[in-house]
Fold this sequence. Notes:
The chain is of the alpha+beta class and about 250 residues long. The chain has nine helices and eleven strands.
Amino acid sequence: MFKLVSLRPALRHAVAFSLLVGATTVAMLPAAQADEAQIRKGLAERLPKLPVIDEVTKTAIPGIYEVRMGAEIVYSDEQGLHIFQGSLIDTTKRVDLTKERVEKLTAFDFKKLPLNDAIVWKTGSGARKMVVFSDPNCGYCKRLEGDIQKLKNVTVYTFLVPVLGEDSVAKSRDIWCAKNRTDTWLNWMLQAKTPVKAADSCTATPLERNLALARKHHVNGTPALVFSDSTRVGGAIDAAEMEKRLVDSGKS
């Protein structure tokens, strides 16, 4: 079953463009045997503003193909004459196949995370590890940071992702460029101590990489947590739940 929803901006623009310049072409296309090349060719011709197609694969439904662009999924007929966006549901298993696929595509590999772009602090031995995506102006992030202080023997890697406006961008830059960014971060989040304005010479390019990392893995809000077994949580959880997940991640 397909749940038809509004196309994302890039796809909307592509479809609009095709309606202006490609409607006649669509009507004149001959029938052809369905395969990846035909779908790629058909979509490229009629939707030239569509993002680059990374992969075309068959689905369990005859005549319907998955078209993947990065972590974005749409579905196509055999010739690329029509595309659908939404969730493909296996009704026998009651499983959202599209969601499963996107989760697999956007999954984290903890060992490959660019931890040099994170603020780091630890308690005790720091043997247990976790990552947090956080915005300095996010109230839930501040509550989470307070709960993290209750954990023992943990190393925390915080990726600053300023998504809540210009002040978040400025504060993130001030924190990252501070002489002691860890103390500056914790003082702001726990005590509301405003960070000193960063020098103009500080570029803080890791913040841009952090935003790109968040987009790549569909981190759509803050806070978001990733544990050492690569499991993730979207949103704030309390200290007890974090402790449980730290224990579980240590078993993998």
